[in-house]
Amino acid sequence: MNNPASLVLASGMSRLGTESAFEVLARAKALEEQGRSIINLGIGQPDFQTPQNIVEAAVKALRDGHHGYTPANGIRPLREAVAADIAARRGVTVDPDNILVVPGGKPTMFFAVLMFGEPGAEIIYPNPGFPIYESVINYSGATAVPMPLHEKNGFSFSAEEVLSLITPKTRLIIVNTPANPTGGVVPKAEMDKLAAGLEKHPHVAILSDEIYSRMLYDGREHATMLAYPALRDRLILLDGWSKTYAMTGWRIGYSVWPANLIGAATRLAINDHSCVNAPTQLAAIEALTGPQDEVDKMMAAFAERRKVIVDELNDIPGFNCTEPGGAFYAFPNIAGTGIGSKALQDRLLNEAGIATVSGTSFGRFGEGYIRFSYANSVENIREAMARIRKIL
Ligand code: PLP
After folding, report:
1. How many folded domains does the chain comprise?
2. What is the mean pLDDT of residues 75-90?
3. Is 70 exceeded by the pLDDT of residue 3?
4. What does the pLDDT average to over 251-261?
């Protein structure tokens, strides 16, 4: 698109980044339309259908005439269902009035960063990490301070290292477990250390992105940041339905805000999108309160695929893949191939028809890695790995 020279865009626009997984998806679709066989291990979305009981709840809601606006923070029965789910799974009491229902996981990070970010402020974020953190921090004018995640720690953070990054200018710190793109899981002991250290920095708010909280393997337990009463008055929790219930396209998520911030967050919601559509909110109640066996089945499938992809990746010369503890991503170290991450992403797509995402799409500490989303069948994963071995 040409930008006529007379238009002057706000400076923030030149700092706004993107999520390359969507660009890879578009290129993969274009190649498919040209008749190429493409195996998509790029985009981070479950390949399953939303469970039928959830779909039916939305259809019923539309038939019953739920066509209008809802309260901006979400309908009360949904916020009560979220509070009950948090109590059951995280063992923490949350007031439904502190919950904000939003269109997906992303609005929570956008609102949290806009609330704290401006020139002169610093925001600490995981790197490699979900690319939108860094993008929105830059957009806000704040300085994006990377929290490096190391392969040798299973891509968990080191609390000591994170705490050493805090300055008087730090306004917000973003943590994510289980993590995208690494599948890393922060152990409870490390979270305890971070929480204890943060008590000494009362000027720092925390955004805890726990969107993969139900996607853990080998009996790992989720270490939620909600568990620390001393941090609750400055903790923002991000979670949602996209990944757990295969509902990425429905656009619904939720956040928990401290009492002193929920009003500002709701005002951002009113300015931005008014509310999430009512049928989706009613479907989200069914997701939380209805049978969970479809979620269990999806997780069993992901567990099997994880094993297959990690074994297969470790069989490719130059690849070394740490076992991911959660989410549905493998993030092998590809330094041994001698090929840069982005160059390898392009070669895999163009020569082997395999869509993946370069580690550099997740920040500069992602160089030397490449992300495989194993939201695809075991058969396709095996075929993809065979094609990669062939071209390398
Ligand atoms: N947070 C993380 C860590 C993610 O990986 C994603 C999506 O990939 C999101 C948030 C955004 O989720 P949603 O699609 O619900 O906006």
Report:
1. 2
2. 98
3. no
4. 98
Which atom of ligand 1 approaches the CA of 21 most closely?
8
Pocket flag, ligand 1, residue 105 (CB < 6 Å): yes
CA 172/CA 114 separation, integer angstroms: 11
* CA separation for the pair 231, 202 (Å, rounded): 9
Ligand 1 pocket check: which of 18, 43, 106 to mutate, most ligand atoms within 8 Å of Cβ?
106
Please give the Cα distance from 240 to 247 (Å, whole number): 9
Question: How confident is the model over 369-381, as a mean pLDDT?
Answer: 97
Overall average pLDDT of the 83-91 stretch: 98
209 lines ligand 1 (CB under 6 A): yes
What domain range includes position 242?
68-289
Q: Cα(171) to centroid of ligand 1, in Å?
A: 22
Tokens of 44: 């981070």
Q: Is 248 helix (H, G, I), strand (E, B) or coil?
A: helix
Closest residue (by CA) to atom 9 of ligand 1?
105
Q: How many CB atoms lie within 10 A of CB 327?
A: 29
pTM of the model: 0.96
The CATH number covering residue 36 comes to 3.90.1150.10
213 lines ligand 1 (CB under 6 A): no
Domain ends where: 289, 307, 329?
289
242 with 152, same domain: the answer is: yes
Does 349 lie in the same domain as 269?
Answer: no
